[in-house]
What we know:
The protein contains six helices and two strands. By secondary structure, the protein is mainly α. It has a two-stranded parallel sheet.
Amino acid sequence: MTSFTAPGLSTDSATVVSECLQERLSALNDLHLTLKHIHWNVVGANFIGVHEMIDPQVDLVRGYADTLAERIATLGSSPSGTAKAIEKDRSWADYSIGRDTAQAHLGALDLVYDGFVTSHRSAIEKVGEHDPITEDILIGQTAQLEKFQWFVRAHLESYTGELANAGQSSEAGAAAAARAAG
């Protein structure tokens, strides 16, 4: 519980919002690491395009983490950006694809974005009951993350609009399907 918070926000609401943001901060820190992992491990015919497409995503995600950490501090709590915090807050599996083709990584990354955007949308609903400022921050982040997912999906989409990884529920399955289609 916080001892102070932003004017007009109760300490109880600030605590709820800060706890929600801490989980999102850990998720953003994990997403940053996943994106760098993909950046370092992508190979194949579309290597350079995907390698370079990932860097702006990494930079933006790192900035989003900083924004949420600063919001947590503004609300009177202490943000935690450690590996231990990521592990404590993690409700998702670790990224499972190593060195692989651009298509395979993009197929898996599409599922990562599915989970991430869904979780960010849930956080929007939760904090919206308490703090419209934080809700606005998360809405803006989600819009850009959805745009990045669109970039990823453009590599997976056929001329008929079907995704190469359609119907897959695991990163390994999505990677295999995208690899086979690519």
